[in-house]
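Researcher: We plan to redesign the surface later, but first we want a full-length starting point. Tokens attached.
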């Protein structure tokens, strides 16, 4: 775990119009950061680049929306496009694709259980999904280092 404690990870739930952004802290916990409203992949990559610079991000974890049967659909193509742009724009940052199946459903259920109003759920579901994606990746890394 020592290896990842000084790193700052950015989690992304890439959507058609809204993309959720989450960030890790020094204790390897993910927190929602913001929702970015941008449908153009190049423009979104530019906004992500600004976040990377501002927070000193060392790695990016992007939710990879595989189909439930494990195949790759249209959403994966959009994530692949964003990933290629980010790798060209920020070549020193490691970009990781992480299986995000059911992250949005989990995020919505968590907010409902927490008593969040339905209007607020729509506003926050992407960044909550990004937080789940990032925390799952961080938990994987910590487990991998311990055992």
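Model: Full-length starting sequence:
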């Amino acid at each position: 775990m020592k290896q990842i404690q000084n790193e700052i990870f950015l989690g992304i739930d890439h959507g058609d119009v809204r993309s959720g952004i989450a960030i890790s802290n020094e204790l390897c916990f993910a927190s929602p950061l913001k929702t970015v409203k941008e449908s153009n992949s190049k423009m979104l990559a530019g906004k992500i680049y600004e976040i990377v610079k501002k927070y000193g991000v060392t790695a990016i974890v992007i939710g990879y929306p595989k189909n439930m049967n494990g195949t790759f659909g249209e959403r994966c193509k959009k994530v692949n496009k964003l990933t290629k742009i980010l790798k060209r724009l920020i070549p020193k940052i490691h970009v990781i694709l992480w299986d995000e199946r059911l992250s949005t459903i989990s995020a919505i259920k968590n907010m409902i259980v927490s008593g969040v109003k339905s209007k607020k759920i729509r506003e926050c579901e992407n960044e909550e999904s990004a937080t789940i994606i990032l925390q799952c990746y961080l938990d994987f890394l910590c487990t991998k280092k311990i055992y």
